[in-house]
Amino acid sequence: MKKTIAIFLLSITTANAAELTVSTSVREAWGNAEMNYCGTNNIPEACIGEAVNKNCANKKIYSARYQKKGKYDDEFANLIMMAREINEHGALFCPTQADGQNNDQKGYTAYYEPNGNDNCIWLCQAKWTGDRCATSTENFTDACNIVPFTRNDYNDVTAVHDIHKKAKNNIENQIEFFYINDYQKCSYKDDDGDIKSKARNEHDMALVLTKFLTSGNGAFARQMIIQSHRTGKKSSDILIYPASKSIEILVCKNGYTPNLSNTDCEPIDKTKCDIAIASTKMCIGWSYSNMNPEIHELTESDNCYKYRCKQSGYAFNSITDLSCTECPSNKRSGIHPRNNTCTKCETGTMFNKSTGECDNNVIGLSKTDMMYGRNKTKNSQKKLNDQCWTQANDPDKYKNCVLGKE
């Protein structure tokens, strides 16, 4: 009798091993949604790759079993970023092909690795970050992930079909679900337009990205139903839509956390993120290794980074000497706008703020010159119309008058 029980328990364990489902605490951490049966496809911003060109619609991409017209051309798929691993603080999202397949008895789901970019990414809920989202943001000390995470990263993702090796490998057993293998009876329209119903349409509940942030710092995730919907006696579609009572949750890449309005992900430590980004985007002629954070600060210019002296009114001694020295801003000195050195002009020259150089042929003008013209006075310019100040409303005329030009 004991041997019989042991064998029976073993068979149960083996069967369940193919169905990875999360714990109750993980379900609650992601919204504790409920199953929603026989819904309609609703993922307007969630799909990736070739599915984007199909507006994320169902019944547009053939399934992995597709061979040619007339051979498995009545089963369909969609391409999404779907969680493979899920814990209470975050999840590992990967490009995934969700298939709606069928046999005579049932319509069932299947999952595959699509062609193209196969990069996965851990995205974390608020207050968590780091490896597997196991570090609280309060204790985060590492550098942030400066590589943008965007929908466009997966533009080359395409569905696999019978001719591809990947199409032979259903990865359903490698994915964690909230619920799986829930078969329900759903209706469909037959070829004559009549409403029919078909039992055993598989419904799974998974964690799926529903919207990418334009900042490239994260996305929104939601508990979604993935349904293999029978569309006929021998045909199936794939439908993806929100689970009942589900909510969108903002998740961020490593080193970022939701902002106060919960609309975007911002750096946990902005200084560290800026430094990490700048170190890879220094302007030509600038080296991050030469920067001293104690006395220098980063500045962005023309989509690249330079640095300058932190203390106001200070500049570099020279191009090779990056120690900071006081640099008065006047007619004879100032900070060079391109290299942040202190420019000091000799007698007879004047500092040009726009170029940072010393201009030669400097002309000194007195207050009298500015009113009546260079080397002229009120007595020499007795006619009012000849006095320069009367032309001050026309800059070009005024300048020519003061300099004695026609």
In short:
With 406 residues, this protein is mainly beta. It has five helices and 24 strands.
Folded structure, characterized:
- The protein is mainly beta and about 400 residues long.
- Helix content is about 10%, strand content about 35%.
- It contains five helices and 24 strands.
- The strands form nine sheets. Strands 2, 3, 4, 5 and 6 form a five-stranded antiparallel β-sheet that branches. Strands 10, 11, 12, 13 and 14 form a five-stranded antiparallel β-sheet that branches. Strands 1-9 form a two-stranded parallel ribbon.
- A hairpin with a 6-residue loop joins strand 21 and strand 22.
- The N terminus is likely disordered.
Please mark out the parts with pLDDT under 50 across 5 or more consecutive residues, or reply none. Answer: 1-18
C-alpha termini separation? 119 Å
Alpha-beta classification: mainly beta
Major sheet size, sense and barrel closure: 5 strands, antiparallel
- Proportion of β residues? 25-35%
Q: What is the gyration radius calculated from CA atoms?
A: 34 Å
Question: What's the number of extended β-strand segments?
Answer: 24
**What percent of residues adopt helix (DSSP H or I)?**
10-25%
Shape: elongated
Mean pLDDT: 90
Order of helices and strands: HEHEEEEEEEEEEEEEEEHEEEEEEEEHH
Alpha plus pi helix count: 5
Map the helices and strands:
Elements: H1 2-17, E1 20-21, H2 24-29, E2 61-62, E3 76-86, E4 90-102, E5 107-112, E6 121-124, E7 128-129, E8 135-136, E9 176-177, E10 179-189, E11 195-212, E12 218-232, E13 235-242, E14 249-252, E15 256-258, E16 265-267, H3 270-278, E17 296-301, E18 304-309, E19 314-316, E20 324-326, E21 333-335, E22 342-344, E23 350-351, E24 358-359, H4 367-372, H5 395-403
Parallel strand pairs: 1-9
Antiparallel strand pairs: 2-3, 3-4, 4-5, 4-6, 7-8, 10-11, 11-12, 12-13, 12-14, 15-16, 17-18, 19-20, 21-22, 23-24
